[in-house]
Input
Amino acid sequence: VHSQQQRRRQQQQVYIEPHVTSEARLLAFLRSPSAFGSHVRPPIRDLDLSVTTTNKRRQHKRLMGISSRAIDILALSLRNHFYVHRLSLRGSLRSSRHLAVLSKSLELNASLTFLDLSNNEVVFANQAMPEEFVDAMRTNGNIQELVLDRNGLATLEIKTLVPGVLHNITTLSLRSNRIDDEGARVLVNWIL
Output
């Protein structure tokens, strides 16, 4: 029984990128004054804090995301550091509260041009688009690329995002959502 449990643990490993081996190290990194740049090294431009598990077959499975404490520290970092251009949080958000905290920082951040919130269905699906996120996307004029793949988005959410909220978006990815014909028409009208 013990060896079976060890084999299962070895088959599934958690990846938090870039090479952050534990959430404690992530928190320490984000809190440090030189987190996003210093006189010794250039600033970090791309930050990928995606959380997924992978097994032998390379199938990705949803995890519970990063902690509320980590989201709070990330949000504070985004308010204070304006070097990060690309932020990926695939599968990292645990709740609507996480998205609300992150959204408040997005309103103030002037450097992000790319945001990936894929695989966060627990935050987006089966509910109205979170108001804080809508406000942040409306306010932030810098984000040009938005990835919302595999979030269970449907026509209601699409109608909320288009057209007023996505005014600066040049690249929008909505793969593997629940968009029906009506939602597709809304998107086509926005593009044209």
